[in-house]
Amino acid sequence: IKMSDEENDRFEEEQSLLTDNFETIPHTPSAWEQDIYDIDEDPDPHATPEREILWAAEQGELDLVKSLVSKHTYLVHVHDKDGYTALHRACYSNHLSIVEFLLENHANPNARTADQWTPLHSACKWNNVECAEKLIEAGTDINALTNGGITPLHLVAELADSHNLIELLLSQPGIQANLKLPNSTGDTPKDITARKSTNERLFEYSEPCFNYI
C-alpha cells in the first residue's frame, strides 16, 4: 500500500522517535526476570510514553494503551532492555483485550526478546489459553525456539493444568515437527509431560499413527 507524503512523513518521524528514545528507556523488569530474581518494578513508569505503554500493557490498562497508541503508533514496537514488548507483557499477564488491540494495531506476534522468547512463549509459560489462541490466529510461529532450545510446547508441558493449551498447540498444522524436538537438556515436550503432569496421553493421540485412523 502506497503511503501519501503526509503519512510517509509521519511514519519517518515516529521511526525517528523510536530510535532516539530507545536508548533512554531504563531497565524495566521483564516477567521472566521478575519471576527468577524478584527485580523491583519501574519506579517511574509514567516518565515517558515508551515506559508507560509497557507498564500499561502489563497492568491491564486498556484505555491508556489505546490513548498512547493513538498518539504514537510506533509504541506497539517498543521493548524493555530484555526485549519484552507490550505484547509480551500483555500475554504473560493474560490481558486478552490488550493483546487483541495490539495485534489489530500491527504489533509483531513473532517479536523476540534477548533470549528469543516470543509472545507465544510468554502466554504458554503462564497457561494463558485465549492469548495463545489470538497469537496463533495472528500467525505466530508455534515452533519458535528460544536460546535454550525451548518451544512454547516445552513450556506448556511443564504445567499440570495445561490440558486445554496443550490440545490447542497439538491441533496446529506443523506441530508434528515439534513433538520429538529436544531442548538444550535433551528433553522433548512429551518427556517433560511424562515427569510433571498427567497430560502425556494427549501427545500419544497426536502421534502420526493416530492421524490415519
Automatic annotation (TrEMBL):
Keywords: ANK repeat, Repeat. Residues 1-15 have a biased composition (Acidic residues). PROSITE patterns: ANK_REP_REGION, ANK_REPEAT. Residues 1-24 are annotated as: Disordered. It comes from the Eukaryota. Gene3D superfamilies: Ankyrin repeat-containing domain. This is Ankyrin repeat domain-containing protein 49. It comes from Schizaphis graminum.
